Amino acid sequence: MKAISLLVCGLPLAIGATWNINGAMDSRLMSKDLKDYEFTLHGSEINLRYTYSDLRGDRLIFFLQIPYSSHLASEMFFHHYGDAYLLLRGQLGEPNIRIGRFDIPFGILKTLDTHFSLLPYLYSYGLGVKKDIGAAVFGYYKILTYDLAFTQGFNNLTSPRMDKPITIRLGLETEGLKAGLSILASTMMEKKIFRRLGIDIEKNINPFVLRAEIISGDKPEGKGFSLLLDFPFFFGSEGKVTYLLWTEEKTYANYGVELNRVVSFITFGVGWVGAKAKDVKNDLFLQLRLKI
Amino acid sequence: MRRLHIFYLLLIFNFAHSGICLWRFPDKDIKRLFPKATGYKTEIVNYNKEEKAGIEKELGIPLDADETQFNFYKILKDTTPIGLVLTHSAKGQYGAIEVVIGLNNQGEVIGVLIQRDREKKSKELRSRKFLDQFLDKTAKSEFGDIKPIKGAERATQAVILSVRKMLIVNEVLSK
Description:
Distance between the termini of chain A: 37 Å
Order of helices and strands of chain B: HHEHEEEEHHH
Structural class of chain A: mainly beta
Mean pLDDT of chain A: 88
Shape of chain A: globular
Strand content of chain A: over 45%
Number of strands of chain A: 16
Structural class of chain B: alpha+beta
Mean pLDDT of chain B: 90
Largest interface: A-B, 38 and 41 residues
Helix content of chain B: 25-40%
Number of helices of chain B: 6
Distance between the termini of chain B: 48 Å
Shape of chain B: globular
Oligomer: heterodimer
Low-confidence stretches of chain B: 12-19
Number of helices of chain A: 3
Largest sheet of chain B: 5 strands, antiparallel
Low-confidence stretches of chain A: 1-13
């Protein structure tokens, strides 16, 4: 026990050890159908990153995100916050191993950071899971990338969506084009097989970036697609517009637009998300984000 | 709950420091810039008031508010340092241009890569014809000889600023 304590305490002092701390805060004023207004601290985070290097370079990264929200129990908060993992780095070009809680490597989640976005994404309908606890291996060979993850299948704090899914993604990355084929296989809690197949594409058509994703699967049977276009807007601001359609027992259609303007470490955002469903309201967001 | 909220925000403001431009494809970029490299080591470098003043004097403009520290990536061949990689994000015509700069142990540019941009003239911006103009530049070099890309003058200036700034940062902070 004493030896372990000495090892743990000694790690920050080891040769090449580096600590990095940063943080972010995302506050939002949200309106449903321009009637009810609500101000929320959607999420905030302190990120601790510890990198351990030996004489041959970086070997281990420990990342811990300490999140906080005024809606700690919300599913959105659970989807977007709480990364905590160990990353074991191989030599250049060799596989890397990640153990802990991280984004599962399925579809667009592998190439797009949705962390602070105001828009809806297909993974929330098609998978129901964004971050999960488990282990992953990833790397690249020439223009190909690969990811393999074994995780728990939790989509919120208490009830698992799946039972220990296996996720595989094979990707291709060239200048201006990224594409991937993803497979997720699991059993539901009732021991039914849950499978999802995804195809994602990101194409630069400068100054625009077009992203498309298709997800299809069974038990429960579901299929859908999404389109997302990034575009430059006036006065240095950037925008995104999206449309997504998902059919399971019901059909869901979401569309939305978001504009962001970054001024130093502050980001101002405005977004609108609409839905073609009687029980879903239109959301208007004003966002103030700090990156520290 | 409100007290917890306020405590958390104070914690963020007190202890958090800014990161700088993310290095997106380290393994691939190292293979292009340093074909003999076997690894790299990340060092986060902070600066004091004198060093900040020194950088800004050389650069002629103030550092950005979020540039509170810099990531230095030391490139290794086995256990021997053979160079350094620095990254920087500058504003182009159509959003951020993220630049990866490779330096040898003498602080001379041995290669420049664009890891992300949305410029209409992206092909020209990423061309060897344009980027090779930065080879052998040092912190003391003049950059007036860099031929701009026609129709992408702002993007050209963004790349020049990135390379020049990181050369100066390296020179001041490596002393």
